Write the C-alpha cells for this entry.
Amino acid sequence: MRIRKAKLAAKLFPWHSDFLDLVNHNALVGRWVAEHRGRIPTFGNLYDFYRYIHGEICGGTVIDFLEFGVYTGHSIKFWSQMNRDPQSRFIGFDSFEGLPEDWLGK
C-alpha cells in the first residue's frame, strides 16, 4: 500500500519527488563529509590537485589522459610533463568553437 502511494505521489507531483531526492542526496553528502572530516584533501590550485592525483592514484603507471575542451593546453601539457612514462598517451580534443549560447538548455 505504501509503495503505491509513493508511486502515485511521484506521478502527481514529479517536482516534489525530485526535490526530495535532492534533499536526501544533500544529506548523504553532508554525512559523508562529516564522517571523513580531516581526511579530505584540499588544494590551493588546480596544479596541486593534479600533483595529488598523479602521486596518490596514478603516479608511476601508464595512463591514457583524455582532455575535452583543451583551450590553451595548460592541463594536458602539465600532465604530459608530470607523467614521463613512454607508454602513456595524452590526447586532447577541441572544436575551437566554444560552447553554444544555450548549452544549459535555457
About this structure: The radius of gyration is 21 Å. The chain has a mean pLDDT of 84. The chain has two domains: 2-35, 46-93.
